Amino acid sequence: MRRPGRLLLRALLWVALFAALALLAAWLALRASLPTVEGERQLAGLAGRVLVERDAAGVPVIRGASRADVARATGFVHAQDRYFQMDLTRRAAAGELAALLGPALLDTDRRLRAHRFRARAREVLGAAPVADRKLLEAYAEGVNAGLAALGARPFEYLVLRSSPQAWRAEDSLLVVYAMWIDLQGSALRTELQQDRLHAALPQALYRLVAQSPSTWDAALDGSELAPPPLPSPDDVDLRRLDPALFDGDGGAGTNPLRLTWMPEADDSLVGSNNWALAGSRTASGHALVANDMHLGLRVPNTWYRLRLVAEEGDVDVTGVTLPGTPIVVAGSNGHVAWGFTNSYGDYLDLVRLEPAGGDAALYQGPAGPTRIERHAETLEVAGAPAVELVVEESAWGPVVERDAQGRRLAVAWTAHRPAAVNLRLAAMERARDIDEAVAIAAAAGIPAQNALIGDASGRIAWVLAGQIPARSGFDPSLPSAWTAPGAGWTGWVTDEAHPRIVDPAAGMGWSANARVAGGTMLELIGDGGYAHGARGRQIRDALAGMDDAAPRDFLQVHLDDRALYLASWQPLVVATLERGGPSQAEALGLVRSWSGRAAPDDAGYRLVREFERAVTDRAFAMLTAEARHRWRDFAWRPPARFTDVAWRLVQERPAHLLDPRFASWDDWLGAAAADAIAVSGRGCARLADCTWGKANTMRIRHPLSQALPWLSGWLDMPPAEMPGDWSMPRVQSPVFGASERFAVEPGLEEDGYFHMPGGQSGHPLSPYYRAGHDAWVRGEPTPFLPGPTEHLLTLHP
What we know:
The protein has about 800 residues and is of the alpha+beta class. It is built from 24 helices and 29 strands.
């Protein structure tokens, strides 16, 4: 008879053996899903041989005879390195996330499916030029071949116990729509909240809160905008209002189109810079172009680096692609270099639907009473029954919201119009000079962007890229009825009329999400919540001091964390803390000795920054108290440029615009200082330990690690205390920052540099998963062009 102990030991050994076998199987499956980087493979559909050369960081150079072959190979490479990222992006735009990620994503799908982007992508694809369709079809076939060539499905699908679905040509357009959502999705919330402010506040106060420009603006055309006057006591007197209206902080804004699987920053934080010097200001005589597109940081990174070389059309272009699409978004082709920042113009309007009789489904359309279209949509859900959704659509766009009076609203958005979406940006890879590149950018079917362009002859230009609606007969800042003859969108601003500045007299150009121009150009672009001007001014002033410049000089601007804007606030913080007495002595000492930079080890900077934020938030909540009381769900953070309104208030100190709970502005500022100290000091025994780096610790995460935290150490980038903040060129928050940085002279690409967070591969076992990330964190220059070939994959027909 066997002893019980031996039986138990044998059982435990079998359990351990099965566990080891399961781990081995999982490990082998993970290894099998690594991309192929060497050897020879067949790729159906190729007309000729394509070479895929990879350097030490995994950056490919893809060489082929035809552009279609290069696109097919690009799809192959993208799928092998980034298929899960591509899948999430197309699903987000289409409102199909729950089918992969389960019921938790249903609300996100409901919001996004209302825009019916998959149906719109099919419409755009069907109307596209034959050459564009063939390019997207070749890319899609390459994607599916790359996915099939993996030894196992990408690891994320193993974790989710799911299988990837094939890529379709329309999916590449969905990836473009996802960028529309990311870059312009918050505009819907902005217009809704402006409508509520307009309905609740006296007009003089509304103009101050919603329409004040940034006094720091550094427009490229030199224009200036005068701020509206402060309301008089006859216009508004907050002291006469019920003090109970001022309780609460007003909440925080949310983006109704937010891709909730992305670890984004809050809506009020924007970034992105680009700038250029003409050849008259550079050592080489070539134009010098820099770009850093700031986005939510995630694993893998938004962009995928590569170099595309095609004999057909003499294409040789290096830069960043958006996985899921076959073209270079920003980069240099030996003749022209270009980069983008989001323009934050006005490309979305809310249309008030006027009833047409007693039938709720009828409204006054462009040609008389019109019935609302109803589209039945099925939302698939992993692990649960499908959900039916009815989407209502008007002649102008989806019916999505109600205005301040409860009337139904449709949204007219450039993203909804097929004519606003195209592949014309692909022609940038063949542009030979400024004039050709500007014309291409103006006609590009992308979310409207500030394009900064330079060419090898030394010329530079700024142009508003993307389609601009031509408007007539209504106020685009508020919901309006478009029933009057000629009211609404009357077409598109012609390519020739697109705002542009070519060969600026000073030989320099810049944009930083702020107002770029005034006058007629601003009327066309509109105000969609453009950014505070401090970043743009800091870049402009840095460029003004440069001559005989080289790429290395631009790196200093990319990494500039000087707090020039907050320097004007620091004396006010000191004066306020001096009135606070001994209890605020530690804070006072830290602020007095601050470095004047957003430095990780600086606790004084953090206090100044939190004071400015507290003053701004309190000022916004105070001035909008009536709107917040009237709509309990009012939740709109002030735009960054509202800080200038707050500054005016604390400088001029009008008694009638002071929260009635306070006896004086000094008391009000004292409360803001107490807020700043409380926020800065959370979790620290001493304020000195609560440095800016503790608040600004970068956490770049993979989507799966958010749901499965035990994978975090394996999937996420290492946390790092980072310099930088919103008001300086080095924009940085824990989940938002430069998704790439480069500086390059077209024709001299070998002298340029490039940075990118994360790495090329989306596979954590790949040596390229984190390659280059540390250089991005430290701001160390790495070459713009891919390095020497370490691996060669040959693709045959």
